[in-house]
Every structure is written in C-alpha cells, then in structure tokens.
Amino acid sequence: MASPVTDDPQDLLTLVQWLSPSFPLGSFAFSHGLEHAISSGVIRDGAALADWLGDLVSHGSGRCDAVLLARVLAGGDPAAADALARALAAAPERSRESLVQGRAFLATTNAILGTDWPEMVLPVAVGLQARRLSLAPETVIGLYLQGFAANLVLGAVRLIPLGQTEGQKVIARLAPAIAALAAELARDPGDGALWSATPLADLAAMAHEHQEVRLFRS
Amino acid sequence: MLDRTAPGHAQISAQPRRQRVDARAAAGFALRDGRTVLQRLRQQGSAKAMLPRVHRPEPELVFLNTAGGLTGGDRIGFDLDLAPGTHVVATTQTAERAYASLPETGPAAMTVRITAGAGARIDWLPQETILFERAALHRRTEIDLAGDAACLWCESVVLGREAMGETLQTLDFRDTRVIRRDGVPVMAEPLRLTGATLARREAASGLGGARALATIALIAPDAPDLLGRVLPLCATAGVTASASGWDGRLVIRGLAAKPFALRRWMAAVLDELRGRPLPRVWTI
Questions:
Q1: Is pLDDT at B13 greater than 80 in this prediction?
Q2: Mutate which of A124, A152, A206 to disrupt the B interface (most B C-beta within 10 Å)?
Q3: In this complex, do B253 and A202 lie within 8 Å of one another by their Cβ atoms?
C-alpha cells in the first residue's frame, strides 16, 4: 500500500470518530489487567501509570496489537492476523476484551459502510476498515494506540483515583512513545517487530480473573 | 560433565576464535504394536540425542549440545517428529548456556521444531536457558500439532550466573515460541529481552527485579479443566505466578528472584500436570 503524503481531512474525521470514546465499543468495561496492578498496589500514582502504559505500548501488548493492525492495514490476511492475535493473548480476559470490542466495532462500521465483515479482534477490525481511508499508516497506528492508552487512563482515573488533569498529563506523556512505534511499524510490521518484554503485565492480566472483587471485565 | 567452565567475554577475545557450531539432531518416533518406538535419528555436529532406559511406556529423549553452550554465530537445531498416537517426553541434558558474543559474529541461532500427528502427545520440557553477560541468542521454537494431538511445554530463562553475582547489562535475547494446531497458531509468545529491558529491570510491568522467568503451557482440548489443580501452586512463596485456562490451553507463568526457587516451582507444577516424575536429568 502506497502511503499518502498528506492525510485526507475527511478520512481523518472518520478515523477519529471510530476511535473516539463515544464510539460504542464497550471499552470502558475493560482494564487490560490494570485493575489488578492498581488493587495490588503496584500502580499508585500518575507516574507509575505512565510507566506501565508506556511499557505496554513500546514493548508489550500494545506493540503486538499495533503490529497486527499495521499488517492488515497494509493488505495482510485478516483471518491470519486474527488467529495470531488470539494466540498472542496472554490471558483469556485479554482475548475477550479484544474480541468484544472488535465485534462491536464491526457491528457499527459494517452498518455505516455497508460492509459485511465477520467478527474479529479490535486491532484487526480497525486495520481492515481503515484500508479505505486515505491516511498515512502512522496516523492510523498512532491514533489507535492513543485510543488504547486513553481508555486505560479513563479506568485508572477512577481506580487509583487520579484527577482528570493528572490523567490527561499521562496521555500527553505517552505521545512520543506512541509516535515512535507508529513510525517504526509504518516502515516494517514484520516478524522482527513482533515481540514483548512485559511478563509482569501479562501476569497481572492473568491474575485479574482470580481477584475476588472486580469492577472491570479484564 | 557438560558443565565445563564457560568462556567469559574477555577470554574469548584473548583466544583464537573457536570453530563455529553448526549442529542439528533430529529424531522421529512411530507406533509399533501399540508402543512408541524410535524410528530414525540423525545427529550432526555437536547436537546429540540420547534415549536413556526408562521404566515407562513412553520413551524419553534427551537432547544435548556437546559444545557446552552457544556463542555468536553458532547454529543449532533440535527436530522431533511424532507419528499419530505416539507419546514422547523430550528434554535437554543440562541448562542451555548462552555465552558472551562478539558484535561481529551476530547472534547464536537456535531452532526447535516439533511436529505431532493426531492423537500424539509431546512433553517438551527443556531445562533452563542461562544468559551470560553479552549473550546474543535468537531462538525459535515451533510446535505443530495435528488434529487432537496434545502438547505440554515449558521454557525458563535465567538472567546471569547467580553464583557469580553476575548482573547482566548487555543482552540480545529473542525467544519466539509458537504452537499451532492444524496450521493455525494457538499460542504465541515472542519474548525479547535486551539491555533496554535490563536497564529497567525493576519495572513493575516487566521483570520486577526477577532473575528468572518461566512459562508452562498445556495445549489439549481438555487443558482448561486442570486450572484448579495448578492454581494453588501459584501461591508458592518466592515466586510470582498465575495461571489461566481458555480455548484448549492452560498457561502458567512465573517469575522469581532466585532461579532455584523458580525451578523447584516449575517441577511442582509439572508434577501436578503429569502425575509422574520428571525426566531424571531434571533432578533437583
């Protein structure tokens, strides 16, 4: 796929609509293991939250999801990417989190666009529908990752708790890492880019399902 | 035996370059009169495979690298093929050691490829991989299951030689693990640990100061049913661990500050899942 030099303004509006918190994905119900990290005292403030989310983005599940999105956006087989995404899920709740949101994303975008895609995990679904948009891959990957991080900040603001301003500062702090990864994956989302170095975040996602008190579904 | 003194980085530089390892050991098992038997065995270079006498119906295969470890530019492969209906337990003779590599040699490359036909069961239980300072190892483990074949798999990694108080700074470790059923990936774990990971070794999302980490997975249609058996073991002191079961897999992960604590915990989990003793080389 040739990268457009400039993003089409109308297509950018479409993508921002799809990735905005008002788009009905049910994302607010999922914490990606963050609830366990907060309730076990690992994350107590904005700095620890920013570290955790930065790690997920740069070298954890955020990176892996973004690789799959980038591959499908560039024309890769969505069924293969969907199967790999499910195999990569560190925990069943992470798998459900991605599938529930992907299903909701496709239900709404299928209705808007007149497409008929079967259910797929969220990053694959976004990559697939975004193929029709005249946008640079780094724009799509970057906005996707920011949406992922912003949703988790929204949950953390309630759980820690943090002030709204502190939460927005965390999102702002993540911008360089998000932009760097988006640029890297726009160049090459091959096997060399698919890796993870966040064993304890994976463990938190697994431990969440065994927690007695849970507000979130992951 | 194979536990010879490892060359440190300085020693490698001072000595004439040793010959690069290019080794492969491949074994195939078939079903004969209802029993699993070794059908073929090929060994090249320093890669060997042995079949110790065991008093169980399923054969035990032990791979080893007689070069004693891996350094930059080395290539080693272990291949295993299980015909339908067979059951094999495979392990490694000793811990795999990844020694210091020089930048100009590139990383050591290791591949493990296992195929298992319908109804087969492979227990792939290699001993830990010990990463030395400046180690560069890229390993790929691919397990292909057909039909209802089952797989019990574990992998453990130790960062530095604890006895020497070694704290790693420089590392290039990639360990891609993929298990497929009928060609479709069912579990993928592309671990990568580098100097950047080590610079933040206390990171709460990463290692949390741990020196050893492990994953154990049982891939079988009824694997999630065993979650209740292993979950109590995840509360073991000295190990941070958890377990989950879903979609035909049971996954257990653990990290520890003390490699020996992790090894003992792994043995307990594997004993619980197997209901029989671990291969003798695992003796702890």
A1: no
A2: A206
A3: yes
pLDDT tier at B9, thresholds 50, 70, 90: very low
Q: Is B126 in contact with B96 (CB distance < 8 Å)?
A: yes
- On whether the CB atoms of residues A33 and A201 are closer than 8 A, the answer is yes
* pLDDT(B279) > 90: yes
Range of A73's domain? 30-208
Measured in whole angstroms, how far is the alpha carbon of residue A174 from the centre of its chain?
13
Containing H/E element for B60? strand B60-65
Angle made by CA atoms B99, B105, B108, in degrees to the nearest 5 = 50
- State how many domains chain A has: 1
If you average pLDDT over residues A144-164, what whole number do you get? Answer: 97
> Is-contact B232 B206, C-beta < 8 A?
no
Inside any domain, residue A98: yes
pLDDT digits (tens, 9 = 90+) for B25-52: 999 999 999 999 999 999 999 999 999 9
Please give the model's pTM, rounded to 2 decimal places: 0.94
- CATH number reported for the structural domain that contains residue A150 in this entry: 1.10.4190.10
B244 close contact with A: CB closer than 8 A:
yes
In this structure, is residue A40 part of a structural domain? Answer: yes
Query: Looking at chain A, which residue has its C-alpha nearest residue B140?
Result: A191
- Residue B138: DSSP 8-state: E
Interface size between A and B, measured as CB pairs under 8 A: 96
- Out of A48, A84, A203, the one facing B240 most closely (by C-beta) is A203
Chain B residue at shortest CA distance from A207: B242
